[in-house]
Amino acid sequence: CEISNIIINKMNHLHQLHQHHGIVSSSSLTSVTNANLSSMSIASSMVPHAGSPQHHQLHQQLQILQQQQQQQEKEVIYKWIQELNNSSTRESALLELSRKRDSIPDLAPLLWNSFGTVAALLQEIVQIYPCIHPPVLSAHQSNRVCHALALLQCVASHPETRARFLQASIPLYLYPFLHTSSRTRPFEYLRLTSLGVIGALVKADDREVITFLLHTEIIPLCLRIMETGSELSKTVATFILQKILLDETGLAYICQTYERFAHVGAILNKMVQFLSREMSARLLKPVVRCYTRLADNPRARQALVTTLPEALRDDTFQEVMQQDSSIRAWLQQLRNTLDPAGSQLQQQQQPNASAAAAVAAAVNNALPGSGLYSASS
């Protein structure tokens, strides 16, 4: 009976899909449905035992229906992808595909390899450029382009399409959104979704991704959002910086000059000040990880001995550390790295200097000065 109910439910689901999307005629669907429901009623009355011929027949019917359902769902997905090329059907297709993107394993290759799809997604992005300066972006416009960005995030995160995504320099199309400063919800949503695409790239721990990003302005853009964005935007931007630092090339790049390290150090210091007022374990973790990674560089470690914020030296974040043991472990590692003897951090703190001045003074002594984020450096 249970198997019969499953098959009947599958048939009902297929019936709804066919009616909604009009893939086949209703007459052919009705004949198939009636035939299967007839066999289901017979099977239900017989209540077959496991291993019996009737039980085996029901399993076969269930497998056939599952295959039919999978094929039907694929046809619906193909239909939505085709509709992206039509301006009159694109908005609804964007909505449906973005909603179901996590349940479609091969969506990224389908999007990338289908004719005109990526161009259609980029068209959605560039057509709202005039709305960001001056900032007149509406909620509807923001939602629509964010659906397109969500699909690009699928492409960015998939191993089969990530490299081609970079080769086409698609992340650069998102940077105008990261340059915006309006605090209204449409713009905040737009920035956050754009950061999500970059976050999906760096999450793969692919050196090719880091190399690409280092030749763009992503670091100053992330630092700006870390300083002025919402808590969630700060968190994603800090995560991106963390992943760049965790790569040896990224760490060397940021610690190569006084200007770069001073900029990063000053923003991280401001983040700690913000967190001392607005406790957030979600945001504190990547901040501490950034400091811990910077301390792996000898010259940066020398500067951090005197510029590490006092809140990371004392018990300011004790409550958060009790809730998240990983933060406590990373912070303890940072303290041990900067002061193995456990006696010099407090003595070398500069209480009378501002955070920015302290960073500048210490880093100036530790690192050479030769420019900010130039691609050629």
From TrEMBL:
<dbReference type="GO" id="GO:0030014">
    <property type="term" value="C:CCR4-NOT complex"/>
</dbReference>
<keyword id="KW-0810">Translation regulation</keyword>
<keyword id="KW-0539">Nucleus</keyword>
<keyword id="KW-0010">Activator</keyword>
<dbReference type="GO" id="GO:0005634">
    <property type="term" value="C:nucleus"/>
</dbReference>
<keyword id="KW-0678">Repressor</keyword>
<dbReference type="InterPro" id="IPR016024">
    <property type="entry name" value="ARM-type_fold"/>
</dbReference>
<dbReference type="GO" id="GO:0006417">
    <property type="term" value="P:regulation of translation"/>
</dbReference>
<keyword id="KW-0805">Transcription regulation</keyword>
<dbReference type="InterPro" id="IPR007216">
    <property type="entry name" value="CNOT9"/>
</dbReference>
<keyword id="KW-0943">RNA-mediated gene silencing</keyword>
<dbReference type="GO" id="GO:0006402">
    <property type="term" value="P:mRNA catabolic process"/>
</dbReference>
<keyword id="KW-0804">Transcription</keyword>
<protein>
    <recommendedName>
        <fullName>CCR4-NOT transcription complex subunit 9</fullName>
    </recommendedName>
</protein>
<keyword id="KW-0963">Cytoplasm</keyword>
<dbReference type="Pfam" id="PF04078">
    <property type="entry name" value="Rcd1"/>
</dbReference>
<dbReference type="InterPro" id="IPR011989">
    <property type="entry name" value="ARM-like"/>
</dbReference>
<dbReference type="GO" id="GO:0000932">
    <property type="term" value="C:P-body"/>
</dbReference>
<dbReference type="GO" id="GO:0031047">
    <property type="term" value="P:regulatory ncRNA-mediated gene silencing"/>
</dbReference>
<dbReference type="GO" id="GO:0005829">
    <property type="term" value="C:cytosol"/>
</dbReference>
<comment type="similarity">
    <text>Belongs to the CNOT9 family.</text>
</comment>
